[in-house]
Amino acid sequence: MKKKVTFLLVLFSFLALDAQENLIRNGGFENGLTDSTKIEYLDDWHMDKENPASGWWGDPGLRFAGLTSGDSATLYQVIEIISADTVLYDLQFKAQDSWNTGKVVVIASTSDADTATRAIYQTDTLDFAAGGTEFELLEFRFGFSENSAYVGKHLIIEFTSTPAGEGDSWTHFDDVVMVGRLPGENTPPVANAGPDQKVTGGELVTLDGSGSSDADEDPLTYKWVSQYPGITLSDPGAEKPTFTAPDVVELSTFNFSLFVNDGTVNSDTVKTSVTVIPAGELIRNGDFSLRAPDWATTSNLKDVFYWNIDKPRDELAGGLWSANHIDLTSKDPNFYQVVDEIGTEAVTYSLTISAKTSWYAKSINSIFSVSDADSSVRTQISLQENIFDIDPANDITSTDWITFKHVASIPENSSHDGMKLILEFEIISYDYEDEIDNGWVQVKFVSLVKEVTSDIESSNIKSLNIYPNPASRVLIIESDAPVSKVNVYSLTGSLVKSVIRQDVNRINVNDLHSGLYIVTLTTEKGVVNKKLHIK
Hints:
Elements: E1 46-47, E2 55-57, E3 64-68, E4 75-81, E5 87-99, E6 101-111, E7 119-127, E8 136-144, E9 154-163, E10 170-181, E11 197-200, E12 204-206, E13 221-226, E14 242-244, E15 252-261, E16 270-277, E17 281-284, E18 308-309, E19 326-329, E20 335-341, E21 347-359, E22 361-371, E23 379-384, E24 402-410, E25 420-429, E26 440-452, E27 464-467, E28 474-479, E29 483-490, E30 495-500, E31 506-508, E32 515-523, E33 526-534
Parallel strand pairs: 11-16
Antiparallel strand pairs: 1-4, 2-3, 3-10, 4-9, 5-8, 5-10, 6-7, 6-9, 12-14, 13-15, 15-16, 17-26, 18-20, 19-26, 20-25, 21-24, 21-26, 22-23, 22-25, 27-28, 28-31, 29-30, 29-32, 32-33
């Protein structure tokens, strides 16, 4: 379930607000001082210690706080002023063991004006699956009675952990959600669309709304909405509808929405996503997690499984220092992998990579080459310059993550039959002033898909035409076999448009620039290529 999911409950505070909202601000720890990982620079959260060892990490929208028991104080947030009403509070949060976590401790405390001086109101020590690799959802509930002795005091939520063994523990926290509700009134239900999923094209996918709930225990009805026209759910009103993942040519993510009804009101709408991996994918090493057994103690590129580099390990500049990407440098030779053995059929290889410059890199060139038995001797057959938009003269030496695509085709019965197909990455440095051959690039995603295009005979499809040609706004497709996928490539082999649904009979082309393109149309009888002129 994505981080933006909001639990809708009837909230009650001393201001008698009618709005339904999360009482926790910055529950996903997205907001904080730019380029900082220090807890004290995290918006809305506090810690009673100067220079705490704890911190917060991750890209915006995916950030989490890492707390250590070695810090003398808890991480806490002032929630609101306690009112004279009877209020019940529901707190949910995610926790993950980073090191030696035994239990997670959550505390509801109160204070007067000085929130650094707090009195524990209620606490819970939650058993935790130490050593787990995934975040675990935990719950904490408490409340105040009408006209309690705490009226007018600050309500504060605190987090910490206790070690499982000797030494300090480190624990990750994320997605903190807290709401208050007034007993006796109908509480809107909470929809839960289940976790995000990854599947392979052609697999049966089951969406899961069983985590949806209603505080009043009213029976729920479900309404799922597919946000992609090519996907039809088995029953949009079911708790767990199914669908068959489409056969995509590149990693594709499809979103689904869910809201539930308790017989009185609808919940907030929440989302989940299904990422579909192409069934014909040759490379699935997006996070470079397949490494030598001792990878945790080394940063050498030669410890990344399946990838090679023609240089001794003690002479390499690039390396792997993160859980999800590698660093390549222009000072090193090309980084490469043997991906396929070329046959007699005509094939198209579609490459997708995600990369960013970290220092003075002009381009990360993707190269398809061929070799005989010795893959260190390679002959280039297709090169694409993946240019970074940097301008050292104006102090621009790095970029955000950029997705590049490279499509290479090998004709039927080519001279490469029986040879190895190799994918390479070459870093081109931007030589500026004293920065000579010193380009650095980070790569965190590589996907390569193979499509066989010669398994169709002209007699298989009696009629498959596209018109008008030239086209300017809409391209009409006529075929005696339903077209399930249309890819449009530039003459340089870049994928510029892709449409996937059950029966494609027209696509909009008004977003394409004038020029010539190759249109690949996929049917149950095979694949056909057509030339298209956009005027």
